[in-house]
Design a protein that fits this description.
Blueprint lengths: L1 H17 L36 H13 L8 H15 L13 H21 L4 H14 L8 H6 L2 H14 L3 H4 L4 H9 L5 H32 L1 H10 L4 H12 L2 H19 L1 H8 L5 H12 L10 H4 L1 E6 L7 E8 L6 H20 L2 H9 L2 H8 L1 H15 L1 E4 L1
Antiparallel strand pairs: 1-2, 2-3
Helix pairs in contact: 2-3, 3-10, 4-5, 4-10, 5-17, 5-19, 7-9, 7-20, 9-15, 10-11, 11-12, 12-13, 13-17
Length: 408
């Protein structure tokens, strides 16, 4: 019996020694090498449906991946998602419910909160110049098409219809020899503006909300990484490939504490926003809806004066002037108080930003007391002031009094 017991014990011990040890699967295992499927912000939720939208599991997975020496490029989307979730939590935004494809009503609270958060970031660190500009210029630019209740209400009061009809009437009163030089955006507004439907406007608002989310996804997580971990947070995003050389240099400029570095970072981030993040989306928007996309991007240009103090409205910065040397009785000119460019076009949009918007915002940002007063103004006040319907009487008045045929 004793021999049997010893043999049994030895068998158990030997079996335990020979049985492979089951190692715990690391929490990051299912999150490596994931593509950022929703990096453009077109759909609800985060960057990949497999990733959590809560901080604790993301943080645990990141901590383990770092401890195990995993190459940051393999956990790039996990890293980006962590800072995105932190960013939306700090902004009081429900990332899972942030779904541009569901329309304005479903996203109205988030739409406003995005800009409120930009002001929060700018108030947190006065050297985050781009965040302040994104709050002021972004909100005022989109305000003309923001309607919380019913998108059809914008059309039913005749907003864009009236604008298109006024332009059409003015074109009919213009000498025919001048019409050949009138930009296509203006003739398109006259021809298609009166036919705008609620469906067209809802589609355009969705396009704006997609671009809004895309900008947030790209630029706000890096702000949160810098605020939390300084250049170490930026360097990890850079090593993962989430940031490029230009963005790492921009953050180094901010971190260096010089005015030149802050100014360069403002330009670099604006360039990334306009010429990398949403440039293609503007192209798609302008080509959409059988010509109506082009009309709507031009209406946005007409109505979208950025609220940065001192910035000129697009139609003041670059008004349309047409000359005809073959008119009877001598050359004729036509001056129209409408922009000579469309915000959807990359080169002319960037020209306006660099010539007018960026210098004026830099002036504001380098005056902390003045900047703080602008940032503290309630968002609702900024939004209402920029609405197309609120500004329509002034726009119509400018059109009817400053549309001038001039002799040479």
């Amino acid at each position: 019996m004793r021999r049997y017991s010893i043999a049994l014990l030895l068998g158990v011990v030997l079996g335990a020694l020979l049985t492979p040890v089951a190692h715990a699967v690391p929490s990051y295992a299912g999150y490596l090498d994931l593509p950022a499927l929703n990096g453009d912000g077109e759909y609800g939720g985060g960057l990949h449906p497999q990733l959590p939208t809560a901080q604790p599991p993301l943080r645990e997975a990141l901590t383990q991946a770092r401890a195990d020496g995993i190459d940051p490029s393999r956990y790039a989307t996990l890293l980006h998602q962590y800072w995105l979730v932190l960013a939306t939590d700090n902004a009081d935004i429900d990332l899972q419910a942030w779904a541009p494809e569901r329309g304005v009503a479903a996203n109205s609270a988030t739409f406003s909160q995005v800009y409120v958060n930009y002001f929060r970031l700018a108030a947190t660190r006065s050297d985050l110049y781009w965040a302040g500009m994104a709050g002021i210029a972004g909100a005022s630019f989109a305000a003309g098409f923001y309607d919380v209740g019913d998108v059809a209400g914008v059309v039913s009061v005749g907003g864009i219809h009236e604008l298109g009809n006024v332009v059409a009437d003015l074109l009919r009163a213009t000498p025919p020899e001048l019409l050949i030089g009138v930009p296509a955006d203006i003739t398109g507004l006259a021809a298609l503006g009166p036919r705008l439907t609620a469906a067209d406007l809802a589609w355009y608002q969705t396009r704006l909300m997609i671009m809004q989310k895309h900008i947030f996804i790209d630029l706000v997580p890096m702000h949160e990484a810098y605020l939390a971990d300084g250049m170490a947070g930026i360097d990890e995003m850079y090593a993962a490939g989430v940031l490029d050389d230009g963005m790492r240099a921009a953050w180094s400029g901010i971190d260096g504490g010089t005015e030149a570095g802050r100014a360069d970072a403002l330009v670099a981030m604006a360039d990334r926003e306009q010429n990398q993040i949403i440039a293609d989306q503007w192209d798609v928007t302008a080509r959409g809806r059988a010509g109506m996309g082009r009309v709507l991007t031009y209406v946005t240009t007409v109505a979208g004066k950025p609220a940065v103090p001192g910035t000129r409205a697009p139609g003041v910065y670059a008004p349309v002037t047409v000359w005809s040397p073959i008119a009877a009785g001598g050359p004729l000119g036509l001056r129209m108080p409408l922009p000579a460019f469309n915000w959807a076009d990359r080169e002319t949009r960037w020209d306006y930003i660099t010539a007018d918007l960026l210098p004026r915002h830099h002036d504001l940002a380098t005056d902390p007391a003045r900047a703080a007063s602008v940032y503290r103004e309630p968002f609702a006040v900024k939004l209402d002031r920029g609405r197309l319907l609120a500004r329509l009487p002034d726009i119509i008045a400018d059109l009817t009094t400053q549309w001038q045929v001039m002799p040479s």
